[in-house]
Specification:
- By secondary structure, the protein is α/β, with parallel strands linked by helices.
- The protein has 10 helices and 7 strands.
- It has 2 domains: 223 residues, Alpha-Beta Complex (Spore Coat Polysaccharide Biosynthesis Protein SpsA, Chain A), CATH 3.90.550.10; 71 residues.
- A 7-stranded mixed sheet has the order 3-2-1-4-6-5-7, with helices on both faces.
- The structure holds uridine-5'-diphosphate and magnesium ion.
Amino acid sequence: MPDPIISVVIPLYNEAEAIDELYRQLTEALEAYGAPYEVIVADDGSADGSFEKLKAIHERDPRWRIIRFRRNFGQTAGFAAGFHRARGDVVITIDADLQNDPADIPKLMAKIEEGYDIVSGWRVDRQDTFLTRKLPSMMANWLISRTTNVTLHDYGCSLKAYRADVVKNIHLYGELHRFIPAVASAYGVRVAEVPVNHRPREHGQSKYGISRTFRVLLDLITVYFLLGYSTRPIHVFGGVGMVSFSLGVLIGLYLTLVKFGFGQDIGTRPMLLLSVLLILLGVQMIAMGLLGELIIRTYYESTGKAIYYVREELS
Ligand code: UDP
Ligand code: MG
């Protein structure tokens, strides 16, 4: 078998009914494209016979590599396992439920060949319910684009293509797979978007409910912090701390004047409480920023990680 150029990574959880069709459509699209490929499926603890089906496919077609998780670890873990094992120059991610259309893969590849590092699918005509899926996702896309400076219409589309070095260099935690382009922007990436086909789910059911919206918001805070401040936490905590501390001191000075200048009682004034609170909060925030600074030093120095990424170097 020649070394693969394309590695397709598929997280899969209880999708037994879709697997044969997935195999057929992917094989057709990839063989038509012509480049040597491998497909890496992360079976995320399925309990519906998915693994047996995948095993049968692997036995007929060794281009299909199967990772079976011990239990359900979530879609992000599936991506991470696939990224780690991918041998191709380009990594393509796709859902197992066939809502994405493998026939769009050549479109993504064309953009990669133009020199982009990440090509994201954009489900222009998304086949999901409006209120529970499309609306939250529209708001999330707007918010994520605004806060991370990687503007995409459709962060949630799983059909994406990446240059391998991009996915090999990012570490995913929790449910951060939705933020890969944003996380990767720390690495310095050129991102393009192409409209892709989207189909209703034919088999099985979605693994997510509306609660995902809140998790996405929390994750956004993490990503925003990591992108902007992970090498300088004192700037975010210290900034807030200094504002709070200064305000507290100003109010305190004013109260001192009232007490000693005008001889009024200040013991019962709510402003006194506010002043003390702001000063304490300020000191704590600055201390937290300093702790952050210590932690990131331990992180970068113990892992030998550089605080920059190089695209090329002439020397
Ligand atoms: N998935 C997974 N582990 C999970 C949940 C989902 O591997 O814990 C897979 C699932 O099999 C599918 C993809 O992730 O291939 C996307 O899931 P789903 O279609 O349920 O999400 P939606 O399209 O509704 O956003
Ligand atoms: Mg789906």
